[in-house]
Amino acid sequence: MIIQRDELTFARRAVRHGLVSGEQMLECIKFLRNSKNSSLKDILLRTGYANKEAIEKIERSFATKEFDKVEEGKTVLGSYLLLKKLGEGAMGCVYKAKHTKSERIVALKILDQELAEDHGFISRFLREAKNAAKLKKHPNIVEAYDIGEYKGKFYFAMEFVDGCSLAQIIYGKGKVTEKQALIICRQIASALEHADRFSIVHRDVKPENILYSTEGVVKLCDLGLAKDLSQDIYHSAGITLGTACYASPEQSSGNKNIDIRTDIYSLGVCLYQMLTAKLPVNNRFTLNPKLNISEQTISLLHKMTARNREDRYQSPNELLRDITSILQGKTVKFKESTVGEEEEQDPYRKSQIVLTRKKRDFQLSTQQKWITGICSAGILWLILRNFL
């Protein structure tokens, strides 16, 4: 089953308010995925991670949001009619809305009031939103339309995508097939390649920011908004469910010199999660042999998530090229690794390298034996012919 947006919103807020840890919530979501009739609140109660009073406190926090209860066609924010709440993130709530003049349907992100009162944050938010609006249209990027303020409420209007997030698919269905995971990564790599032309770094690539339309098109949202804002968001609102797992090592260490390679790392984490239905622990991308993931995709994953960014793909264009080749059935020549730091973090990867080398050595040994045998037979025939 696909986990509904309101369940993910509740999960995110419960973690943010310290009701449960991120690990405990992921465990509950796993139970929810395998349950037909239970809600996330039921599972929290059954596991003992939360009591009824704590859950009611989180529910009351929803009620304090001014626009949580909207009446279709009646609740107005500036030039927009709010139609339906779509979800909630670190920056605020997102609604399906309609522009009163053009009647265009949009996704309207309204900043959380706590952030709206931070003047430094607002100035950066407006600057980054304008940069996002300057991006030329791309099929795999959610298009930015409008930014504004109405009665102290700051909002950002963007393309409405009819579908669900990649997070809903992963938490609902579990693993994604290897081919489908690569197809999704190829589309997001294309989005990153386009953003890189404008020197824009996302810094928050994760399944919740990847939308999957009913037409099968994958789109990256919030592009241009995350850079310079993410640290403020995390400090003011708390790191949301799973966010820290997607951050690159240099991002986690507080390095301010962040470039597109951090987005490539985060996309690699998304690929790992799609293939395994779990998140890496301490940057260890362990892969179970039973998953039957191809050696080509394993090499791709490890190059995307290399701890040293100099060992990663240096541009989305390079990544896009290799993903396309793998999907076309072509063999990509990856730099041969030694059994060192990269493989030590993944025992399966280490064993695969050893097995591949043994297989290659066996093939070479067999070829050499055949050649030696043929040559010996030829020499023996020549000697015998001289005596006959």
From TrEMBL:
It holds the Pfam family Pkinase. ATP binds at residue 109. One of its GO terms (molecular function) is ATP binding. Residues 80-388 form the Protein kinase domain. InterPro entries: Kinase-like_dom_sf, Prot_kinase_dom, Protein_kinase_ATP_BS, Ser/Thr_kinase_AS. It comes from the Bacteria. Keywords: ATP-binding, Kinase, Nucleotide-binding, Serine/threonine-protein kinase, Transferase. The keyword Nucleotide-binding applies. This is Serine/threonine protein kinase.
